[in-house]
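Job type: complex structure
Entries:
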Amino acid sequence: MIRVDALTKCYGLLTAVDGLTCQVAPGEVYALLGPNGAGKTTALRCLATLLGPNSGSASVFGFDVVQDPIEARRQMAFLAVSMGLYERLTAREMVEYFGRLHGMGRDALGRRVDELVDLFGIGDFEDRLCGRLSTGQRQRVSLARALVHDPMALILDEPTLGLDVLSGEMIYDFITRERERGKAVLFSTHQMDEVELLADRVGVLRQGRLVAEGRPADLVAQTGAASLSLAFLELVREAPS
Amino acid sequence: MSPWWIVCKKELRETFRDRRTMTMMIVVPVLLYPVLLIVSEQVLLFGMRNLESDGAAVAVVGNAPPQLLRMLDAAEGLSVVDVDGPPEEAIHSDSVTAVALIGPVQRADGTRDVTLVFDAASDRSRRGRSQLAGVVAEWGDSLLVERLQDAELPLSLAHPVSVSDSSIARPAEVGGSTLGRILPLLLVVFTLLGAFYPAIDLAAGEKEHGTLETLLTAPVPSSAVVIGKFVTVALIGVVAAGLNLGSMILTFQTGILQFTGVSGLEVSIPFGSIVVIFLTLVPLAVFFGALFLGIAVRSSSFKEAQNVLTPVYMLVLIPAMLPVFSGMELGPFMALVPVAGVSFFFRDLMTGDATFVTGALVLGSTGLYAAGGLLFAARAFGNERVLFGSVDDADVDSTRGWVEKLRERSNGSGVPSPEQGLGFVAFVALLYFYGGFQLQYRFGEPGLLAAEWLLLLVPALLFVRVAGFSVRETLSLHGPSQRALLGALLLIAGATPMAWVIGWLQSFVLPIPWEILEGLEELVTAETTGRLLWLLLVLAVTPAICEEVVFRGVLLGATKKLEPWRFILLNGGVFGAFHLSFETAIRFLPTASLGIVIAWAVWRSGSIWIGMLMHALNNGSIVVLASSPSLREVFSDPEAPPPLWLIPLAAIALYSGVRVLNTSTNQSER
């Protein structure tokens, strides 16, 4: 269970996330929607223990991200576009490094890495330095890196950004599969087709505030729009403050 | 496996795959360095041989005795040529290296004048001269022998004293001292170079590639990340320095170097010393590693980190270079100076002069600095603003010009940022340095007056107005309460004598430049009432207004958002630094402490008028004291201790001033 309770994060005078509350249950996929600058990345970074919230709290499977950040990190996989790979490690070494940081033993780690290499089709380039990989290949390695400890919560910040259709589809498949395995998945995006395809529930962020939440169909009904895209437009454009 | 070790192993692996670092660490010291040394030595030897093999052309002008000419012909490496025209031209045109002008007539006492004409700016000519001088001296000796024989006197008559040298230094020590001057610097430089790129790569490089964010999602405390990285950087620094040390020693000891043979030097450093040198490199590398990491992590890109670290690198080189200069010794004080202590200790180890106590001091202090550096680095790694904040801010800022930024930020209200305030003071200080001293020099006291008003007050007012800051807020233009006035009077009554006591105390450490003090005293001493009033205007009222507006106005206003103790110390420090010149280092501490007291009073009262009053009273009291003959007696000798009764009175005044001001209404918070 991912819980966010009245989470607020300010940068100086700017309030990037303003009292965000939401929950993601095991086996559920939750999409955080919002235009650029709405606070999606900041909210997810707080959840990933990278930023400290000014007030409010968040926890991942019972571990508070402020009180017990190390344990919270063990419970989740965090993936964002801004996260890079070590240029002078090979794809395999990169994944293994994070496995070791998660305290995995040599044998368990070896098995898990083989599994991930198969799962994400990394085999062809597992011994190539990350600096020489293509964008799609990098994203696969990043996914494997994030999932090396097979956590129960997945927090993905725009996981398909900049990917081609094939790599994007691989990610959709992967999210669907993880949901079936009972994982709690929280991801951010501004692509409506992804939301329709994957999300059980949607939260819409505007200027740091959650302005709507519910199943995609509920949002469409609530706004009276013809499609989810139009509903989204309606919600984020409403009442400029 | 503990997390820091996992991080360290991974960083080492990546570093070994990094060509740039590897070049700096291995290729440069192991290959290039000895090659360079050998090449430069060969060039030197070649040049020496060249000079020696070429027969130096010399000439004799005037009535040359045949005996001298015979000796010149016989001398090796000399060829006598004829010179037409003035000898100076012949030397300039290189047709002859040196010319002996033989005086035409013997003097009455039997001495002959010989002038050697040569060009001191040319190696060849100097060499020719010294050879020529040798032959002439030989000729003189032969004349002396003839004379003694003619007079039937023993030859020893001309040599009452016989001097010969006997150096107690073993050849190894001579070699050690020559090498000892250069080698420490090189060792420090290579440790620096070794740690430089890895530190940037492991800190700023991670931010640039976005891997830091990745790394910080791993379930390890950030302290483990810092330690892992820092051990890597320090290790690379040590390895780089160790390789360099080894390569140098091998180069010197293989005996392929003819230079050591030629110059009679023997270079061998005892094995024990090598071990101690290496052990001392460890805390040094640790210090550099931590310092560089802590600084580099505050930059968001490799390039930015390089820009920031290069001046740091230069700054560190200065203390490292000290042992190169002769006359500097490693004392207990020098042992505590960062980097310099290590550099001197290396030198003493090579010459065999090192003592256990200084070694322990050097090791201990370097260890402490290293720990401080590590804390500094760890704080940066635990700070989310350092790790994530700077990137976003920079994006917004870089799209606008600085004038726009200045205007937009101020917007008629508000105060300058600390950077803007400090930048302005730096600008005014430069203006004053180039313009103010000129004015003072050319026009004397009126020039000083003009400099204060035109180069301090006017720019300060312009800065606040043009940039559109709130004049009232920035300059603290609030009327003081009566209580605050009372507090200020008490405070300055205590602070002025306190500054005097500080000045007297530091005279035990810093020498007093007497000539300048006498000049100062003349400047502040008035003989007539008119002169006294003029001096009060120039030296008390004017600085009180103009300097207060700059320091307690703009600077204090711009930095008030920082923590109080920071901006007050900063204010005093900058104020003291502004009053520095080449000769008056002694003014820094007293002025800075006055600045601190005044800055505190202005901040507490929210009123710059308080600062002006205190400043005017302090300066005015000095003018009045110096002008009153009876008082001057008591106060004029800066080496004499201040009267004892003054100290408790000053302390009471200071204390009550602080109490009164602390309880008065704080205007700036209202």
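Summary: Chain A has a mean pLDDT of 89. Residues 46 and 52 of chain A are 6 Å apart (CA to CA).
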